[in-house]
DNA sequence: AAGCGTCAAGCATCC
DNA sequence: GGATGCTTGACGCTT
């Protein structure tokens, strides 16, 4: 059995690096209060530039800590997809910054992707929502291409809303998929959610449309037909067979029994190791996205816990094997 | 500096 | 069909 390389990543922002938010923003309300629209747009561009420069700082922080896996904030450019800013060329003012960011990631082999907000809903019944969803995905596509990153399998989405009838809404994802441009389609990965669409549902769609499946263990514990997931793991791996990228999954721990769906500050290392042991050897590499309130600090804490375990063999500060 | 109300998106739920 | 909650990080006003 080949060993699996596990790499850890975290989401969008750091609790260690001060004043490094990649998600500073101007709300539409504030934007519309500017007397001078040109000044307002200039303000948006200043914020966008700062967000991307902060991303670069985060990437340097990642490099210093051997972190090769990172989720970018989807809020890099405030109001980029807002209706009131149609025609605004939001790329030109930050073109060089995006290139610099992408070059740094490429040079230091940092896998980057996005998780667009939950109002990107591809199984919607409304034409308008479909339009803004594709528009938002196109914004992500633009960011990726200007970072000179191949936009393949870079955006994790959920299947969408239930709309009273889960089965027909699931099928609507499949019929709406035909309305999505091919270059947007190839960016997408699909993740099981904690309320409606289970791993089983996601696999059905992923296999049908050839989309990689991102398994979220925490969501699965909150929402499943059967608690057992390992019997489906082979299918999850299989959805990645045509991808240039390694298998990716999401790891988080429940905040409490009462607030089970909410994310805890840290990752429960025992739960994580139990998972790791089950999937070890199934594929050469699994990138584990740590989704915890304490962001990079949760990753560092988990690494400390792993180092204390004699079954774990660290490769660097954020990657490891299980000893055979 | 800290705390609280506000903002933004779409869906779910309730009336 | 309209109001409210969900969720999250950030803004901005008040103390």
TrEMBL record:
<keyword id="KW-0255">Endonuclease</keyword>
<keyword id="KW-0378">Hydrolase</keyword>
<dbReference type="GO" id="GO:0009411">
    <property type="term" value="P:response to UV"/>
</dbReference>
<dbReference type="GO" id="GO:0016787">
    <property type="term" value="F:hydrolase activity"/>
</dbReference>
<keyword id="KW-0540">Nuclease</keyword>
<dbReference type="InterPro" id="IPR036237">
    <property type="entry name" value="Xyl_isomerase-like_sf"/>
</dbReference>
<dbReference type="GO" id="GO:0006289">
    <property type="term" value="P:nucleotide-excision repair"/>
</dbReference>
<protein>
    <submittedName>
        <fullName>UV DNA damage repair endonuclease UvsE</fullName>
    </submittedName>
</protein>
<keyword id="KW-0234">DNA repair</keyword>
<dbReference type="GO" id="GO:0004519">
    <property type="term" value="F:endonuclease activity"/>
</dbReference>
<keyword id="KW-0227">DNA damage</keyword>
<dbReference type="InterPro" id="IPR004601">
    <property type="entry name" value="UvdE"/>
</dbReference>
<keyword id="KW-0228">DNA excision</keyword>
<dbReference type="Pfam" id="PF03851">
    <property type="entry name" value="UvdE"/>
</dbReference>
